[in-house]
Every structure is written in structure tokens, then in C-alpha cells.
Amino acid sequence: MKKTIAACIATTFAVNYSTAALAEEAFMAPLVEQSVLLDIDADSFVVIVGERGHVLVSEDGKAFNQKAVPTQSTLTATTVVGENIWAVGHDAVILHSSDKGETWEIQNYQPDLQRPFLDVFFFDDKQGIATGAYGLFYRTLDGGKTWAAERHASLLDPMDQEYLEEVRKEDEAFYQQELESILPHLNRVTLDGDTLYLAGEAGLLAKSTDMGQSWERYYVDYTGSFFDIKPLDENTVLAVGLRGNIFVNKNQGEWEYVQTCSTSTLNSILIGSESKVYALGNNGMMVSAQRPLPTSMRDPYANPSDCKADDGIVVSQIKDKAALLNATQFNGTSIAVTANGIKTLNLK
User: Where in the sequence is the signal peptide annotated (predicted)?
Assistant: First the structure.
């Protein structure tokens, strides 16, 4: 399964950055657990990240402690491998801790790039990727000591790929410029077995079997953004996104629409049990779906008035209507991060 950067079809180039202009350390906020928190991950402990460089760690999933980190950049995503934590966010910042968040180092910081990272994933404690806005894609093979940037043309719509190939025949430099300008946002990556899944802007859903070095783009009859993608079992993959849209792929067939009758954007997927899966969204909306998921012939662009949800779909809303950004299960509890802080979900 181990690959090398030399095997990558995408364009790669070295990353140079300076930490001289780093912002001061994150503000230690007395009400940090009620602040805007954007991502959560867990292994033997829980890590949460959010605005202004906030990082919270908990050993039991109940009591959270804010950690001092050397940035005030908004942190959008985090991942945990053993005692290692990586967090990424605005200003193309990448942070790392090797001791459960007690001490931190800056591995990347490029505010002049003006592109945020939106997700980070490590295959082990050495090999990882960070993805973000406008096709931002960095890879490390040494635990983040060095990062290399990649551009993946295979993530583009086929018509854009065709256009770029014509450009490349005439001018390689202009090809690289155009590629960088039209790559979509890469919102979320998920690994299942040997397959890496990616959800992004403008109808982008893709998979890779070589740790993201090459990609196969799915065809989906929808051009809105997707914000999460997860396999539910060996034959079923679920994707959620803009305006409450949910699509499911069964047995590697066509992506089919799931009717929810909700137009709140869905940000993430939480697998509750073998029989239930949840999509978490803006306005505190939570869509519960009975597995196997139903599908609908309804047009995702149709007017939702007089709508009837597919069988097995239940839409609910948390009390304060705060946007639900992501969630994880830890020690039997479903912990969510929201625009109003940490919440425990009552999954039914």
C-alpha cells in the first residue's frame, strides 16, 4: 500500500514557508466550550478545534481543557493518530502535537497563499494529506517535517480536463496556471480499508486506491457542493451537501437521490449503528436515515413544496438551532461540535 511521491500522476512541487510572521498564541478563552467549534476527532482521547486557534482535549469526552497553540488562525479540521494530533486551517496552517496536545509545533504557515485547509488525514504516524480550498492538496511522508504540494487534474469535471489537455499542448506554463485557478474546493476525505474517498465543490465525489496519488471521479447528476462522504458498508457509500441534498451509491451503480424535504445544508455524516446513519447540518438540523437507505426518483433541483420524505427518513432540530459541523462517538456518547460549542446528541 505504501507509495512514493514519484509515482503520483499529479503535479507536485516543494513547499517553502516562513514562520516569522506567525500570530501570537491562541487566546485562552474562559467560555471556549461555547465558541465556534468546527471539527472533532477521537482515538483514545478526544480533540476539538475551532475559531481563533482554539484546541480542546478530553480524556473522557466530558471534561475538556483548552491547549495553548502558537496561532490564532481559525482551525477547520483535526485528526488523531496514537498520541499525535494534527490540526489545519486558515492561513494554510498545519499544527502538530506528539503528546496529546501538551506541546505544539508549526509545520506549515502560508498566509500569503490566502487558501485555507479544510481537512487533514493521516494513514499512519508518517504519511498524511491535507486538503482545502481551490484544490489545495499537500502530502507528507515524514510526519509533517516536510510537506509537498500536489495538483490533481483528475478531480476536475471531464469537460475541464479536456480543456486543460488542449491548453497543455500549447503552453505548459499556462496549463499550470489554469489548473491552479479552476481546481475545486476539497472539503472532506475519508478512508475505508484501502479506499480513500473525497467530497468537494461543484458535484465532486471521487475515490482513490493509492492513498490519493491518483483519483477516479464519480459521475453524479448534481453540481452543488458536497461536504462529506462515507462508506456505510462494502456496497454502500453516502454523500451529503448543499441545501440538504443526500445521495447514495449502491453496488457501484449510479448515485441516487435521497428525499429528506429539508433544505438546510448538511455538513457531516455520523454512523450511529448498523441500522441508523445521521446527517448533521445548518440550523441545527439532523437527518436520521434507516439503513438500507431509501432512494427517490425526485429531481434534486425540484421545488421542495408539498414534499414527502422517503420512507425511513426523519428530520429533527436541536433546541438552539446552532449549526452542527461534525460529531463522533466516544465512550458511548455522541459528541458534536457546533456554532455554539460542544453538544451531546440524543440519537433516536
Answer: 1-23
